Amino acid sequence: MAITLVIAMLLGALASPKVQTAAVHLVTSELSRALGSEAEVGTIAYHFPARLSIGGVYIADPAGDTLLYLGDMYAHMKPLHLLDGKIHFSTITVSTVRAYAHPLPSGEYNYQFLADLIKEDTTKQEAVFLPHIELDKVQFRDFLVRYDEHEAYMPSADIRVKHFSMDSINAEILTLSGQYNNGSTKPFRLEDLRAQLILNDTIITAPTLYVRLPHSTLDASGVRITYPAADTIYLSEDASDIRARLQINQADICTADLGLFIPSIKTLDGKVSFTGTIEGSLDSLAATNLAVYYKGYRLIQGDISTIGLPDIFHTYMTAHCQDISLSASIVQDFISDLQNRPYVLPEQLRHLGNTHYRGTIKGHLTNLNLQGAFQTALGTITTQGHLSSDTTFSNMQFNGRVATRHFHLTELLPSSGLGDISFDITTQGKVREGGFPTGDIHAHISELEFRDYRYQDICLHGKYSRTSYDGVLTIDDENLALNFNGICDRTHGEHYDFDLRLDRLVTKPLHLTEQDLSLSLNSHVNLSGFDPDRVSGYLLIDSLQSRNVSDYIMMRRLELIAECDTTSSVPECNKSLSINSDYMTARINGTYAYTRLGNSMQKWALRLLPSLFSGEQAQRIQAL
C-alpha cells in the first residue's frame, strides 16, 4: 500500500512542468550510467486524470549510432485502483520504434553490451519488491527493426491482456500485421495474425493460432513451447532445451507468398495445403499424420522425424511414407508452374496412371537409405537402395536393387513390340554434374515378352554408361541361348570387341521368320571407327550351322576384315573389305560406303541361302 501511495504522489508531481524537466534529466542520467552508453529521454509527463506519457527515448550503440529509438508511449491508468494497492493500465500504446543492429569494426554486434547487461542481471539474486500491476490492452504502432540487410516492419498490433504479472501473461493477439524484407524486390507480408497466448518463465501455449498472408492462411491449435527458466536461458546453448508442439488444423499456402524465402517455387500458382502435428525440440522435430496437398490433390501422407536441426546437412531424417501419390495431370501442372510455361507430359507416361509410393526413407540429406514400392497402373516396382552426394548434389553415388513382376511395357512403349517384363536388378554407380549414371549392373530378367514371345532367363553382369557396356549378357531360353562377353563403346566413335556364342536360335517361335529355321555359331568381333561407314577391324565366325525343314548348312569359318582410311571425314572413303569362308573368297577395294553394300549383300544371301527368305521378302530383295 505504501509503495502505491508513493507512486500516486510521484504521478501527481509529474503534472508539474518543472518536475517533468527534472525527471527527464534524472532518468537520462541514470539510463546512460546503467547502460554505459549515450542515452536520452525526451519527455516524461502525467496528464490528469490518468494518462502517463514518455517520448523521445534514444539509446546509442558504442559507435555513437542509433541502436534504439522510442517515439511515444502512452499509458492510460485507472487511478482508483491505486487505493487497492494496484497499478492498473487500461491501455498502453507504443509507437514509432526504431531498432538498428549491425556489426562493429571489432566484429561484435552493436547490441552486445545490452545482451551482456541482461545476462549479468539474470545471475543476480537480489529480491525486488514491485507493486501489483494489471494491464488490459497493449497497442503497437509503426515498429521497424533492421538487422544487417534484414528489415522487419510492423505497422500495427493490438493485444488484449487477460492476466499480467512479472512471471506470467495470458493475452489474446487481436490483430498483428507486418512485413519482412532482405533486400529483394518483393517482401514477405503478414496480413494478419491472431492468437491466444499463455506464457510464464518456462512455457508458451497458444490454444488458437490464425495466420493470414496475402494469398495464404494457417489455422492451428494446441501450440506449446517450453524453454529453460529465465535465470538459465542465457547460459544454455542446447537446442534440446526448447521444445514445441503445433497441431495444424488446416494450412493453405500459396507459394508466391514464400517466394522471398524459397525463390525456386515462387512461380507455382497452385496452393499447397497440409495438416498434421509437429512436435519435439528445436534440434529434433517430428511431424505425425502429415498430409500435403497440391491444388487439392493429396501428394504425401506419412510421418517424418528429424534429429540434428537446424543444420539440414547434419540432420538425420526418418520418413515413413504411407502414400506418396502422383497423377499425370498434377505432374504436368506442377512442371508447368515451376517452369512458368506450358508443359505437356509424354503420352506414354500418362499410361502409368496414378502412381503411389509406400516405404521408408532414412539418413542424412546427403546420405539416404530408401526402401519401398511404386504402384502404377502398369505394375508394381519394389526398390531398396542407398543414395549419397555432396552438399551441392552435383556428384552423387548410388547402390540399390529394383525388382518387378509382370510389368506391362506395352502401353509405356507401344511401338517397341515389348510386352510384360519381370526382373531383379542390382546396380551401383555414380552421377557427375547431372550427367548419365555410370556403374555396375547385375540383372536377372526372368521373363521378357517381345513380339508375343516370352523370353526366359536373361542375365547381365557388367559396367555401363550412357554410351558403353562392358560385361556379359546371357540368355538361356528354349528357343534362344547365347552368351555375349565383351565391350560395346560409342563414347569416342564406334568400338566393339566381344565374343558371341550362339548355342541355339529357333526363329519361328520367336516370330522372327515365317519358316522353321535354327541357327548356331561362335564369333569374335573387333571393330573400331568414328561411325559405321568408317570402321576398321574384323569379324570371325566359326562353326556356323543353319537348319530348316529341308536344308542344312554348316560353315566352319567366315572371316570378314575391314580396312578404312581413318583420316577421312566422309563416308565414301578409301576402303578394303575382304571375305574368306568355306563358300567364297572376295575382296572389295575402292571408295564406297559400307552402309550401301546392304542391298548387294541381301541379293547375295538370297542366292546362297534362299530358304531363309519368304516369297514376299525374296521379291522385295530382287527388286532392289
What is the helix content? 10-25%
Ranges where pLDDT stays below 50 over 5 or more residues in a row are 1-6, 231-236
Shape: elongated
Counting H and I runs of at least 4 residues, what is the number of helices? 7
Cα-to-Cα separation, first versus last residue: 119 Å
β-sheet strand percentage: over 45%
Q: Describe the largest sheet.
A: 33 strands, mixed
What structural category characterises the helix and strand content?
A: mainly beta
List keywords for this structure.
7 helices; 56% strand; 33-stranded mixed beta sheet; 624 residues; disordered N terminus; single chain; mainly beta
Write the layout of secondary structure elements.
Blueprint: H1 2-13, H2 17-35, E1 39-40, E2 43-47, E3 51-60, E4 66-77, E5 86-101, H3 112-122, E6 132-135, E7 137-147, E8 150-164, E9 168-181, E10 188-190, E11 192-200, E12 203-212, E13 217-226, E14 243-254, E15 271-281, E16 284-294, E17 297-307, E18 316-326, H4 328-339, H5 347-350, E19 355-364, E20 367-376, E21 379-389, E22 395-408, E23 418-432, E24 438-450, E25 453-464, E26 468-476, E27 480-489, E28 494-506, E29 517-529, E30 535-548, E31 552-564, E32 573-581, E33 585-592, H6 598-608, H7 615-622
Parallel strand pairs: 5-6, 5-7
Antiparallel strand pairs: 1-3, 2-3, 3-4, 4-5, 7-8, 8-9, 9-10, 9-11, 11-12, 12-13, 13-14, 14-15, 15-16, 16-17, 17-18, 18-19, 19-20, 20-21, 21-22, 22-23, 23-24, 24-25, 25-26, 26-27, 27-28, 28-29, 29-30, 30-31, 31-32, 32-33
